[in-house]
Design goal:
By secondary structure, the protein is an alpha+beta fold. The chain is about 40% helix and about 15% strand. Strand 4 and strand 5 form a beta hairpin.
């Protein structure tokens, strides 16, 4: 990696590499519905919609399905997304420096974080997005 690429990477923000497509599901959906949607969209996580403005968003990831449904032998058609999702979310700002985002994700033990602009979730960033940015030095 060139010196220019390293310097450019240092100045990158979350908004520079985040995905702006946000795949969502309602918490009352079954885990089987969530799995079908994840497979159809070819994604590893879904943002769980808030029930109302005062509620917190959630997230359901493949690991939740495997660890909380498949491993204990539960029926994915009987378990609701809200029962296995993580909530509240750890979110990042679009203006956050990529290096601080990576540090926060590492310390929090998460692989992806929704991007929140103060009003709504506007994107999602994963450790894969950060890794790709490092390799490309966009």
């Amino acid at each position: 990696m060139s010196v220019e690429s390293v310097e450019k990477l240092k100045s990158m923000k979350v908004a520079d590499v985040m995905k702006t497509t946000i795949d969502r599901i309602n918490g009352n959906a079954t885990v089987a519905d969530a799995v079908r949607l994840m497979l159809k969209l070819r994604v590893t996580c879904l943002i769980v919609n808030r029930r109302n403005h005062d509620d917190a968003w959630g997230i359901v990831v493949r690991k939740d399905v495997v660890n909380k449904v498949i491993d204990p032998g539960k029926d994915p058609d009987e378990v609701r997304v809200f029962e296995i999702m993580t909530r509240p979310l750890i979110m990042v700002s679009p203006g956050l420096a990529l290096k601080y985002c990576a540090r926060m994700m590492h310390r929090a033990g998460i692989r992806r974080a929704p991007v929140f602009d103060g009003r709504d979730i506007v994107g999602i960033i994963s450790n894969t997005d950060i890794f790709i940015a490092l390799g490309l030095g966009k």
